[in-house]
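Action item from last meeting closed. Structure (72 res):
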């Protein structure tokens, strides 16, 4: 979650591919900034979902390994 907040607060991030950069340059500064923020917004959702899945998996594995070590 902290990572997401840092990403959204940094203003000089470049999240555009070459094609998007060229299109944004033609649109001007205002729409280019909106396009860049939109790309960052779309990036945060999948990363957040993967982070939640990873944390849950890690916690489950930790409990499983603790139980296996206790049985030995």
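Sequence:
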């Amino acid at each position: 979650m902290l990572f997401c907040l840092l990403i959204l607060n940094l203003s000089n991030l470049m999240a555009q591919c070459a094609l998007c950069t060229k299109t944004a340059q033609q649109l001007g500064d205002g729409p280019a900034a909106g396009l860049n923020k939109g790309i960052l917004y779309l990036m945060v959702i999948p990363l957040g979902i993967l982070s939640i899945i990873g944390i849950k998996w890690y916690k489950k594995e930790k409990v499983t390994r603790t139980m296996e070590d206790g049985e030995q």
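Note appended to the action item: Residues 30-72 form one domain.
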